[in-house]
Write a sequence for this structure.
């Protein structure tokens, strides 16, 4: 199956106006950051859900312990997609690569294939 999608590169001011549920990556020319989901916006920052490193943990010390255990002993890591973080860097020059709806649908379909294979 062929996947075609579109993506927008926008500035911080535009990004803060995006609705909760927006899928995005931090972007700098030719470099994409981790995939995240934007949630509530505040005046100058926002909440987000990590996708790549959404490891279930109680705090940063617990996270480190779990990661070292997984690395050293092959332990599985539980994922938590209901744990929000808050951006606090306030970089007015930050750009964002925002996924449009058809991009997200294509990603879901591609992930679905990994389960079926």
């Amino acid at each position: 199956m062929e996947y075609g999608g579109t993506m927008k590169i926008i500035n911080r001011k535009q990004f803060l106006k995006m609705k909760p549920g927006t899928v995005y990556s931090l972007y700098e020319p030719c470099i994409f950051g981790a995939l995240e989901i934007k949630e509530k916006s505040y005046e100058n920052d926002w909440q987000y859900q990590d996708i790549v490193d959404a490891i279930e943990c109680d705090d940063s010390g617990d996270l480190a312990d779990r990661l070292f255990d997984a690395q050293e002993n092959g332990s599985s890591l539980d994922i938590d997609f209901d744990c929000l973080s808050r951006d606090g860097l306030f970089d007015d020059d930050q750009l964002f690569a925002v996924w449009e709806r058809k991009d997200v649908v294509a990603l879901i379909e591609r992930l679905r294939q990994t389960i079926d294979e």
In short: The helical segments are 12-16, 60-73, 101-116. The chain has a mean pLDDT of 90. Residues 7-52+82-116 form one domain.
